[in-house]
Sequence to fold (589 residues):
Amino acid sequence: LNYSQTLSQNLMLQRRNPFLRFARQAKLFLDENWKRIWIILLWLGAMAGLFTWKFIQYKHRGVFQVMGYCVCFAKGAAETLKLNMALILLPVCRNTITWLRNTLLGGIIPFDDNLNFHKIIALGIVGGVIIHGGVHLTCDFPRIIKSSPAKFALIEHDFHHKKPSYGYFLRSIEGITGIIMVVSMIVAFTLATSWFRRNIVKLPKPFNKVTGFNAFWYSHHLFVLVYICLFLHGIFLFLTHKWQEKTTWMYLTIPILLYVGERTLRAFRSGHQGVSIVKVAIYPGNVLSLHVSKPPGFNYKSGQYLFLKCPDISPFEWHPFSITSAPGDNYLSVHIRTSGDWTEELKRIFSELCEPPIPGKSGLLRADIDAEEMRRKFPRLLIDGAYGAPAQEYKNYDVVLLIGLGIGATPFISILKDILNNIKHIAERQLESSPAATPKKRKADTFTTTNAYFYWVTREQGSFDWFKGVMNEIVESDEKGIIELHNYLTSVYEEGDYRSALITMLQALNHAKNGVDILSGTRVRTHLGRPNWRKVFSKMAATHKSSTIGVFYCGAPFLAQDLKSLSHEYNERYSISYGTRFEFHKENF
Fold:
């Protein structure tokens, strides 16, 4: 009652005082986004400073008398391009970012947003190219060509004492490398947009081959050509001749060396981490499950992901997949949903080698590989990783809400397994009192999660087969109820609808009699329809007062925005009255 009264008083006060409401919303916004804000402000400040420095520098040079403010804008934009072409490599240095997550920098830099920052820098590059190239082509070059003899005399030593033509600029090393860079960037940026990368744009054959992940992956490697041209572009300058004033290499050297080092490490490590296939299963819903041997020294945290390569399909392509095994398991597992050429080919290869479906096992194709001869038949797989992901931060929260849509459940299965393993370690520690139990005690002491709520929403009933064993093990082993499982099947009418009444009745009777859900085949009761997320958030806020709840989501983007908005809304509503805060995290690949 006291909490209700306090909440009502706060809401009344906010309605009467719009300034207080605005201040509260601003504070919540800053609390949630301060890491992003200071990084973006630092980036914008650096660009503004470099632009202004170069603008003023050229305003006081003789060339200003010929080209005016055009050259100032072009050179200012060029300086921001140098910075951004250096910075854009850093967010994709995955090994470095994974390592930095565990340092003090992880507390002040939003490493979860590395790909978003990569895209923001790309937009900065687009803007810089438009200004730099556009001003040169439409203003600087025409002014030089049309300049009077007296004015051209100020810069004639830069052009070997001969007035250039427009074709001279385009045929020069500066012009050719500039054109190559712009064309390459247009191709790479276009195919990187979600319309092309996710096959939203449907083109007729044979042009359909220029869309999809493969087109995105290959076109992005045009960056090698771009950086070669950029180095040449920064050396053969029209107006700058002293080497110490040609600063392009100064910006690019360290980021490129870091990136090359990352790729070298990746090639070396993956070349020595060929794995043996232990088990294969093909589930309903076009999902391929692979269990492979864990390479020596391969350490990872629940929620992280790895890259997988199959040289039999492509010697170059690496694809990211969430790890579904727990760090304590003696194998690695991934669950792959076929959604493109590469995954479809991988599934086809394994389908031909798997055993026929076994009656009573939901039509699964299986292959438990024991014989060496059988292993030689399977394609060679290489792995690289593990790499950091938002979900690995779940240990920073006592209470976590894990939400997966369809195959988006994969990173959370590893987390649930890890929590379950820790529960078992705690139980063993309580039973053992010998000195030999000390190492296990130390390991269990790092476990702080008090409650984990897992919501799995899927359209296909067969999806529940993917992790049936994990679900049943959690129900049987979690005696203290630390983990709460909620399965939702959206292809059936919601509970309470008369059209689903018969299913609901049979489901309740079978679960009460046999302890098994007829829809999922597990001990976890399956709900019909979609979760009421407002009720979920309200219940958690009331149940876990004075707690910070980590909300982790993996799945389609449309729900991500809704969950993020709900987290913000319920922070406004309950952070004062209940002391409950929700912190939202979304998986990015």
User: Anything to note?
Assistant: Residues 18-59 form the longest helix (42 residues). The first strand starts at residue 274 and ends at 275.
